[in-house]
Amino acid sequence: MTRRVAVIGAGSSGLACIKCCLDEGLEPWDVETENSEGKKEKHIFDAVMICVGHHCHPNLPLHDFPGIDTFTGKYFHSRDYKTPEEWRNKKVVVIGIGNSGGDIAVELSRVTKQLYLSTRRGAWILNRVGDNGVPLDLHFNRVLGFLRRNVPFGVFCSLGEKRLNSRFDHWVGRRPQHCRRTAAKCHKLGSNSQPSHQRRRRNLLRYRCM
């Protein structure tokens, strides 16, 4: 009997679960409850795997934003973001330069009148695709681990910063201000689109360090 498994989430854990299901001979399904035309579909599965990551609970620290109670515009967590069309020709600020904030900022920059990406301390921009089209995670291999353990930490970070800046010059406003020369310890944003948006001078590029 064929068993069908619904894998919800296409991140690293979701993709790993899909591979395991295939190895076990199960037929995995990635659920889409509604398409762009509003058509809804329902399926019956033998099992459901929730692979949406550990950041699935929204955190809105509204007490850190004085005047938010009198703000007449709309604010919400990135979890509730669906489509950029609602924000066409509007002025928008995206707070936070995590992976969600970075991806949403790139998408919104194509339709908004003006978009700001607010970051407390900046971040290193890391391409998701490495050299020769190889997925980036494949570059984190034993050779890199050997260098990390045996090369002086400052030298290792300097080499890392030079590598990161070879694809995108971080001095344009996104270089982390709190951990210079220690790139290995700073937050890294995985994005292929932000550097190209920077070069084309799209309206995404208004950064505010809080």
Report what the structure shows.
This protein has a three-stranded parallel β-sheet, covered by helices on one side. The chain folds into two domains: 4-50, no CATH class; 58-210, no CATH class. The chain has five helices and eight strands. The chain has helices at 12-23, 99-108, 142-150, 153-167, 193-199, and strands spanning 4-8, 27-29, 47-50, 91-95, 114-119, 124-126, 188-190, 206-209. The radius of gyration is 20 Å and the shape is flat. The N and C termini lie far apart (57 Å).
Distance between the termini: 57 Å
Q: Quick one: biggest sheet? A: 3 strands, parallel
The side-by-side strand order for the widest beta sheet comes to 2-1-3
Please work out how many helical segments DSSP would assign: 5
Strand content: 15-25%
GO molecular function: flavin adenine dinucleotide binding; N,N-dimethylaniline monooxygenase activity; NADP binding
Cofactor: FAD
Keywords: FAD, Flavoprotein, Monooxygenase, Oxidoreductase
Pfam families: FMO-like
Keywords:
8 strands, 3-stranded parallel sheet, 210 residues, alpha/beta, 2 domains, flat, 25% helix, 5 helices
Please sum up the structure shown:
One of its GO terms (molecular function) is N,N-dimethylaniline monooxygenase activity. It is built from 5 helices and 8 strands. The chain folds into 2 domains: 4-50, no CATH class; 58-210, no CATH class.
